[in-house]
């Protein structure tokens, strides 16, 4: 039976004290870290963000607090999320795989996809990554967990893969790992020193 990402799901995993795996303070630290990484390599402030699989858009308020005026766009496959928050939080209805065809009138300084990829099938991941690579101006934060991680939270539908599987797929999309689940787009590769890379090239 397919999972339903309705209000009950978000109440359980993001608000209920027995299940919630993230505190507001932890989220702020994470967003600050990702912004810092992106701005270091861009050499300027992040101007716009695409948040894929954004859920109820918890990143939006933190991003706007840290960077007032930032242009935030969210995408999620949950009809509940879009009907309730689509207009007020700028969230459109789309799955990760639809990024193979979906394009906007700009590229993005920061693309975020948290806690999504390890629930998706390989074909959808590969399809969506083509869009990520093409739309990325700066840095992508692709937070995925593997069979080597002690994963908490929602285990229903979790697909246990090796870390190298993700690295191969990200590399095929032109994404360069620079640590802490951050990946640089092809336009920034010339700015990265060898020891900044998460994995050194084979000599």
From TrEMBL:
Keyword Methyltransferase among UniProt keywords: yes
GO molecular function (one): methyltransferase activity
Pfam families, per database record: Methyltransf_23
Sorted UniProt keywords: Methyltransferase, Transferase
SUPFAM superfamilies: S-adenosyl-L-methionine-dependent methyltransferases
Entry keyword annotation includes Electron transport: no
Gene Ontology BP terms: methylation
Domain of life of the native organism: Bacteria
InterPro entries given in the database record: SAM-dependent_MTases_sf
Record-given protein name: Methyltransferase family protein
């Amino acid at each position: 039976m397919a999972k339903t990402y309705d209000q009950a799901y978000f109440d359980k995993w993001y608000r209920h004290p027995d299940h919630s795996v993230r505190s507001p303070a932890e989220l702020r630290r994470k967003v600050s870290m990702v912004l810092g990484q992106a701005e270091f390599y861009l050499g300027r402030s992040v101007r716009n963000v695409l948040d894929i699989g954004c859920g109820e858009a918890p990143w939006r308020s933190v991003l706007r607090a840290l960077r007032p005026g930032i242009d935030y766009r969210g995408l999620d496959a949950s009809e509940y999320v879009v009907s309730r928050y689509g207009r007020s939080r700028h969230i459109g209805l789309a799955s990760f795989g639809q990024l193979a065809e979906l394009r906007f009138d700009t590229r993005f300084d920061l693309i975020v996809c948290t806690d999504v990829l390890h629930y998706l099938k390989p074909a959808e991941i590969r399809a969506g990554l083509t869009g990520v690579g093409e739309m990325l101006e700066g840095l992508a934060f692709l937070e995925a967990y593997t069979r080597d991680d002690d994963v908490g939270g929602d285990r229903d539908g979790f697909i246990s893969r090796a870390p190298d599987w993700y690295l191969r797929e990200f590399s095929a999309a032109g994404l360069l790992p620079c640590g802490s689940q951050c990946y640089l787009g092809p336009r920034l590769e010339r700015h990265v020193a060898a020891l900044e890379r998460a994995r050194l090239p084979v000599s």
